[in-house]
Structure formats: structure tokens, C-alpha cells
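Q: I'm writing up a methods section and want to include an example of the input and output format. Could you take the sequence below and give the corresponding predicted C-alpha cells, formatted cleanly so I can copy it straight into the document?
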Amino acid sequence: NRPNPTSEAGTCRTICPSHRRTAMNALLTLLRQAEEERDRCAAAWSVASNTHTAIEAQYEQLLAYRREYEMRWIHQFSEQGHMELVRSYHGFMLRLTQAVEHQLGTVQSAATRAQQARAQLLSREMRVASVRKLIERRQHLARADAGRRGQKFNDEMASRVVQDSSVQGLASTF
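A: Here is the clean output for your methods example:
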């Protein structure tokens, strides 16, 4: 009596070697796709991070320029305080402050994009690691199953040899 290889739901209880290969091929394809997606996310994070760094450097340069400009005009005001110069200074400082504030907003947006890209990259790295772990587990189970099948085969062969030798021993007594 051979047991029914299907369960009540109609799925295979024991996986035959061809199904194992197909399942492993599917997992390897999934791993390759996950790695490609992770690599795309890594590239996007790199671009976002470099962009953030460049924008932040521009912001720092703008702040430094504003400080230098203020220092220069403070010195200029101490020497001569013409009203036209004061108006010019205030108008330019207003525009410069607006530029600094705009650049700060750009820095914050770039930082957010870089953080989101990094989080997405970490998520993809976790997916790759999970798929790799699943493949390792499946390979370990396949090796253990192959070992059990080999041991079963050896046990059956040993049993047959013992059986054959006992049958030959009985035949020689007749």
C-alpha cells in the first residue's frame, strides 16, 4: 500500500526532485530580481546623498558670503553712513536672506529624499538577505533529504544482502 502523495487540498506532500529544482530556480530568480532592485536603490541613494551634500555645501557657502558681506558693511558703516548705502545694504541683505532661506528649504528637501532613499535601500537589503536565508534553508533541507534517501537506500541494500545470504544459506541445507 503506497501512501497518497497528495494531501486533502490536492498539493504535493513530498516534493520530488524536479519540483525542488523548479522551486530553487524560482527562488534564484527572485534573489536576482531582489538584488537588481537593491542595486537600483543603492544607486538612487547615492545620487540623493551626493545631491544633498552638494546642496548643503551651497547653503554653507551662501551663509559664509552673507557673513562676509555683513562684516564688510559693518566696517563700511563705521567709516561713512550715507543713507543711499544703507538702503542698498538692506535691500541686498533682504534678497540674500531670502536666498539663504530658500536654500535651507532645498537642503531640507534633499535631506528628506536622501533619508527616504536610504530607508528604501535598507528595506531592499533586508529582502535580499531574507531570500538568501530562504535559499540556504532550502538547500540545507535538500541536502538533509538527500542524506536520508542515501541512508535509506544503503539500509535497504544491506537488508537485501542479509536476506539474500539467508536465502542462500537455507538453499544450501536442502
